[in-house]
Amino acid sequence: MLEKLVIASANKHKIKEIENIFKDSGINEILPIPSDIGEIIEDGNTFIENSLIKAKAVYNYTKLPSLADDSGLCVNALNGRPGVYSARYGGENLGYKEKMQMLLDELKDKEDRTAYFITSAVCVLNDNYYIALEGIVNGKIIKNPRGFEGFGYDPIFQPDGYDITYAEMSLEEKNSISHRSLAMNKMKNILYNIYHV
Q1: Which of 147, 156, 169, 179 is deepest in the core (most CB within 10 A)?
Q2: Per-residue pLDDT at 197
Q3: Candidate list 36, 69, 70, 109, residue with the active-site label
Q4: Residue 70 annotated to the active site
Q5: Is 194 helix (H, G, I), strand (E, B) or coil?
Q6: What's the chain's average pLDDT?
Q7: DSSP string covering 2-54, please?
Q8: pLDDT tens by residue, 18-52
Q9: Neighbouring-strand partners of residue 30
């Protein structure tokens, strides 16, 4: 039985989403990141590196199993950009409306509009052991934003097999197919197998 798991995030939406996924996993308590931990600098070159930096920092601070994730949008015609810089694309102070417009402007002469959302998740269990995995959803960037749900680049991302964007889906529908839910469900199953043998 895993008694406690710390989520290396202060984002209430993300914590709620993860709590929802992990509710049948046998974990007794899911805790948010300690408020007094200070800023964790994510200076990795990949999503996995950034997740590991966060999870290790929280584990070293709490000495409890710690779970972190890093997500982003990768556009094939832009050589994978914005990628790990998805949240900082165009500068820290640029809102997502402007970030989306910048991305659409960069794509306007491109025929290939395929893209994917990726989540890398890392769970540090102790000083010697961690689990790292990914969830990926393929799709395309549409020409004009649609929908008001979700956040970030959701209004311009249409997943394969759907004629609506992430932002046009209910939270439940998005959570049932999203890159984060794919990664977190994989993590839940691995943790369940480790702690319930």
Answers
A1: 156
A2: 54
A3: 70
A4: yes
A5: helix
A6: 92
A7: --EEEES---HHHHHHHHHHTTTS--SEEEEPPTTS-------SSHHHHHHHH
A8: 888 888 787 888 899 999 998 899 899 999 999 99
A9: 5
